[in-house]
Amino acid sequence: MDDPAAERRSLGQLGRQLVGRAVVYALFPVLLSQAFALRRHALSLVPAAGPPVGRIGRGTPLRLLAVGDSIIAGVGARRIGRSTVAQVARFMSGRLGREIHWHASGIIGASARRVRCDTLRRLPTEPFDAILLSVGVNDVLKLERKRRFRRQLLKLVRELRRHSPDAVIGYIGLPPLDTFPRLRRPLRWIVGRRVRHFDAIARDTLARVPNTVHIPVQFSARPDMFSQDGLHPTEASQRRLAKIIAGTLVAKVAERLPEAMSVPPTHSMTETP
Q1: Are 43 and 81 in contact (CB under 8 A)?
Q2: SS3 for 65?
Q3: Contact indicator for 102, 38 with CB cutoff of 8 Å
Q4: Helix, strand or coil, per DSSP, at residue 33
Q5: Which of 26, 83, 196, 243 could serve as 267's disulfide partner, Cβ 3.0–4.6 Å?
Q6: Per-residue burial over 153-187, b = 16 or more CB atoms within 10 Å of its CB, e = otherwise
Q7: DSSP H helix total and E strand total for the chain
Q8: Mean pLDDT across the stretch 148-154?
Q9: What is the pLDDT of residues 104-144, one digit of tens each?
Q10: Are 46 and 75 in contact (CB under 8 A)?
């Protein structure tokens, strides 16, 4: 005999899903307008000034590649040397005692598919030791389908693995977009729900690829953490983010480097730099 309580719970869940979909459909014209306006704003931003390559530290060279969207391009920092990628290289050098040769290839407003199609073909042929990947935010904002995002992300990570078979791949988890100052209701509500789903998809997808790690990005947002565009972190916030990323990457890289130094504890986005 069927369980009446379980049946009621199932019907209740179905009812909530139908109501949620009805609300989304009713608000869809507004959501679409807000999403397109936000993407137009994002595409008008400029990357950090300076060449997207560099070296930092001393010791045996370690090659770091960063590919992805605007955070890789350094948006929010005035110069590339103060961007997230360069700061990650700086922290990794200090913790590993290695000279970090870093190469950043970021496209503002890029989806996972665009990064895969437009960026990978321009990479140096020499393999990297560590790869930092940032995609997904623009897939959320352009209302990309979840299945398509999962498929494109998996293709992207597997192509990076073919390029650099022994590299540690670190994926920057999706941030809590619904707390960002630039987003307004009702887009804020929908984006908050979607970004959590997409981050879970990314975490599940990356679990299929060996030597790959999902780096969670969770923090309590404050207005002073964002640059004037209301979407990207300030230089100080990028430095704190870089500490989190470097802590995770170093822990994975150190497993493969017998000469690596001990790994300090990871940090919170809300700590004082």
Answers
A1: no
A2: strand
A3: no
A4: helix
A5: 243
A6: bbebbeebbebbeebbbbbbbbbbbbebeebeebb
A7: 8, 6
A8: 97
A9: 999 999 999 999 999 988 999 999 999 999 999 999 988 89
A10: yes
Q: What percent of the chain has pLDDT over 90?
A: 58
99-106 sheet: strands from edge to edge: 53-56, 99-106, 61-68, 130-134, 168-172, 212-215
Residue 41: predicted pLDDT: 56
Number of Cβ within 10 Å of residue 65's Cβ equals 25
Q: Is the pTM of this model over 0.70?
A: yes
> Integer distance in angstroms from the first to the last C-alpha of the chain?
61
Number of Cβ within a 10 Å radius of residue 228: 8
Contacts of 32 (CB under 8 A, 6+ apart): 143
Dihedral over Cα of 220, 70, 33, 225: its sign? positive
The answer to whether 130 and 66 have CB atoms below 8 angstroms apart is no
Q: Which two tokens stand for residue 260?
A: 């690596």
Q: What are the φ and ψ backbone dihedral angles of 166, each rounded to 5 degrees?
A: -100, 5
Report residue 268's pLDDT band, with 50, 70 and 90 as the boundaries. very low
Per-residue model confidence (pLDDT) at position 160:
97
Arithmetic mean of pLDDT, 191-210: 92
